[in-house]
Amino acid sequence: MDEIRGGEIRGKTEGTATVPLSVLDLVTVGQGRTATQALRTSVDIAQLAERRGFHRYWVAEHHSMPGVASSSPAVILAHLAAHTERIRLGSGGVMLPNHAPLVIAEQFGTLEAMAPGRIDLGLGRAPGTDGATAAALRRTDRLGEGAEDFPQQLAELTRFLDDDFPDGHPYARIHAVPGPVQATAEGGVQSPARPPIWLLGSSGFSARLAGVLGLPFAFAHHFSAQNTVPALDLYRESFRPSAVLDAPYALIGVSALAADDEREARRQVLSGALSMVRLRTGRPGLVPTPEEAQAYAFSPMEREFVDSWLVNIVHGTADEVRTGLDDLAKRTGADELMITANAHGGEARLRSYELIADAYALPTA
After folding, report:
1. Using CA atoms, how far apart are residues 333 and 193, in angstroms rounded to an integer?
2. Scanning 23, 133, 218, 268, which has its CA 20 to 30 A from the CA of 142?
3. H/E element holding 102?
4. pLDDT digits 0-9 by tens, 98-147
5. What pLDDT, on a 0 to 100 scale, did the predictor assign at position 1?
């Protein structure tokens, strides 16, 4: 097996954590805040995560959501690469049907050249937005075809990343640059390494595909908790050893927020819950303040949604969050936990990651 590639995938456990801990960033924008401030917060969190021993830092792709400024993961990752030195950076993920595979190969080849050995390419098949926005992105109304064609798009992207289209293929003379072709060109000294591919999912489709292809798998527990265990079971049952992995490796995205006391944690997560209520009812906006969320008159249906939403957010004091994360890792058998904190302000998110790092005695330098 390719031990180097596998080494890039498997995380490192630090402190007293039972599994590696990582960060998922949506670059959330709160009311009264700007996208500039949100992006500065992302740099602050990435630097904190690197300093405290979190393994990787991924950025999600979303579109047409005022409260989420992560529409261009590759651009954000280039910015983060310039402000960090060691932590792995990646997409959690790029929604492949929204893009031409060659473009993604070029973008992530460029990122690999910027930060060699630190880039992950996480791929999803959902649009990361509503149907109308997806149609605008893809310049077509036939959105179902994008999801159905995902395995073929993935195969094409992999060929571009590896620069190994067979002779006679229409793309055999096309090369993703930066990429392996620069290592084989006359006088070339470019490393042939390329970012490892992860498949992302919130159901069984990508779980099975990742297993069949022997790829690492990331599951969106933070918004599809009821499907987590079945999807991970399907991934493990479907897994076939590959040149990438000799055994399954799965991480799960987890909503978690720690605060100095339970009341403050509840205030912060209620803000994110109200933001989700508005998104799910077709009223996406900036993330509301905790004060607005506390004063908001939830309808019975909205309250039911909020209660069910908050059940799957690990929140409270640092010790309570540590216990909740440990229980989740044990229950799901996840190999890695990727924590996302959806709150109004950057200060609350930074404090949460610091408290979680302290709770696990992660490194301080």
Report:
1. 30
2. 218
3. helix 101-114
4. 999 999 999 999 999 999 999 999 999 976 566 777 777 765 666 555 55
5. 33
Q: What is the pLDDT of residue 128?
A: 57
Burial class (CB in 10 A: 0-12, 13-18, 19+), 35: middle
DSSP bridge partners of 299: none
Q: Given this model, what pLDDT does residue 4 score?
A: 38
- Any bridge partners for residue 254, and if so which? 339
- Helix or strand (DSSP H, E) at 325: helix 318-332
Q: Which residues of 245-260 are buried (b: 16+ CB within 10 A; e: fewer)?
A: beebbbbbbbbbbbbe
Query: What would the 3-class secondary structure string for 132-199 be?
Result: HHHHHHHCCCCHHHHHHCHHHHHHHHHHHHHCCCCCCCCCCCCCCCCCCHHHHCCCCCCCCCCCCEEE
| Residue 242: both structure tokens together | 């590959």
Dist CA 66 CA 30 (whole Å):
9
pLDDT for position 127: 66
- In this structure, are residues 94 and 124 in contact, taking their beta carbons and an 8 Å threshold? yes
Q: Which helix (H) or strand (E) holds 326?
A: helix 318-332
